[in-house]
Amino acid sequence: MLEIYGQAFATVLLPQNLIAMVLGALWGLLAGALPGISTSMGVVLILSFTYTLAPMTALVLLVGAYLGGITGGGITSILFGIPGEPSSVPTVIEGHALAKQGKAAAAMWTYLLCSIFGGLFSVLFMIVATPLIADFALRFGPAEYFALTILGLSVVSGLSGGSMLKGFLSCFFGLFLATIGTDGITGEERFTFGTVTLLGGVNFVVAMVGLLAVSEIMMEAEEPFKEYKGMVEYRGLLEELPRFSLFRKYWLTMIRSPIIGTIVGALPGAGATIAAFLAYGEAARTAKHEPAKFGKGAIEGLMAAECANNASTGGSMTILLSLGIPGSNTTAMLVAAFMIHGMQPGPLLLSQRPDIVYGIFTAMIVINLLLLAITGTAIRLFLQLNRLPYSVFSAAILILCVVGAFGINNSVDDMMLMFVFSLIGYFMRKFGVPVAPCILALVLGDLAELSLRRALLLSGGSPLGLVSSPISAVLLLGALVSIVYPLIKKPKMLASS
């Protein structure tokens, strides 16, 4: 086994492959950081450049873009409050709040170290436990997916601030938004108001940019002379690097979050977004150190989300390589890359092309280390962007949001929809209604509805079908406990304003 991995490392570190990994990681960081250019879009854009490359070189280039895209989403999320990726929403909630408190450098280093730790953890875990994860993922049917989404939605209790009533109101609004568009089972139109713009539903990237980024710019415009002093100070690597005591303090979060990310990443269709929200919600529910800070700059929430976010990559690649099932949109693009080079990911790939499988495993380790070096070197440069007063670069942020919303589908309608959601987000903030539960429900709502209806169809309409398996029963029980426990612990949360 050691000889196989030794040969894999020797292949991966060939000059052409090393250059491909660096270029892929750099492009991925850029694609992940810019709103409107998702990780999957970033992989698609460079896919056409891989036709003439050797199979190994082509695959490490694309894997580099994949890992870089997931990592890059945290950069603009922390500095500007713009979610570069849907999975970066928890990072916006906690990381940008820390940046506004003058802790941008500390937040950036914490995000980076946790991202790389999560990525390396998932790679090592998938090397050891690939058969186990693949077998577990195959056990998930519609009932299990529904239970998983309900568990994810139960995070609302940890994102509601002082009032769970307002949190659930925001959540139900997000669930309503998720029903807009064409019915996934019958094909009927729902709440489209006769416009083709909403036939495909509400694009959650457009909604997130409006609800999170543009609405905050509108809030800040009420105080045009308010600036964040000290947020660009960088005292040097040794001073800004988080101490080991910080990670020791949150050791349980550092272990639990990448495990959640790896397992959720291995579930087809789940991906980094659900992994980040589940880990973030679990950290919020079980927080022993400063739980009141969640939603206002909790370092533990940032750590949990970023660990799980990047750990999902290992889970997705595991299920792709072992079963040929893409665990996310991006790994679906990688299936095309395998087929272009005459390979079919799945059970036979390990026996037919072990050099490719082990090469990808080792490449993911090297790429994570490269991302640590590249992003760590550039942190000081990223922080310089904040030397401009907020009142100045808020205009640049708004332009990025507009370009990002338009660029998703090259549609002015998406841009207008973004401004509609920015107004909704503005009034939600003014009346103290948390935005995060709405976004969470919008992301999970479609999967929750389709899974519920499919499970009921399979069970002949019997609700008992939802708890027919131990996995779904345990997940639903966990969701129930996570919602009821805060009400018992703090009953005033239900009605407080």
Task: Name the descriptors.
497 residues; mainly alpha; two-stranded antiparallel ribbon; 22 helices; 1% strand; globular
Q: Give me the Rg, rounded.
A: 22 Å
Count of helical segments?
Answer: 22
How many β-strand stretches?
A: 2
Distance between the termini: 60 Å
- What count of structural domains? 1
By helix and strand content, what is the structural category?
mainly alpha
* Lateral strand order in the biggest sheet: 1-2
Beta percentage is under 5%
Largest sheet: 2 strands, antiparallel
Shape: globular
What is the H/E string? HHHHHHHHHEEHHHHHHHHHHHHH
Percent helix range:
over 70%
Mean pLDDT: 79
- Which blocks of ≥5 consecutive residues have pLDDT under 50? none
Brief digest:
71% of the residues lie in helices and 1% in strands. It is an all-alpha fold. It starts with a helix and ends in an 8-residue tail after the last helix.
Describe the protein in words:
This protein has 497 residues and is an all-alpha fold. The chain has one domain. The chain has 22 helices and two strands. It has a two-stranded antiparallel ribbon. Helix 7 runs antiparallel to helix 21. The protein is globular. The N and C termini lie far apart (60 Å). The model has no long low-confidence stretch (mean pLDDT 79).
Question: How is this fold's topology laid out?
Answer:
Blueprint: H1 2-12, H2 15-33, H3 39-47, H4 55-80, H5 89-100, H6 104-138, H7 142-153, H8 156-159, H9 164-178, E1 181-182, E2 189-190, H10 204-220, H11 237-240, H12 244-249, H13 251-265, H14 271-285, H15 299-323, H16 329-340, H17 349-352, H18 354-384, H19 390-409, H20 412-430, H21 436-458, H22 470-489
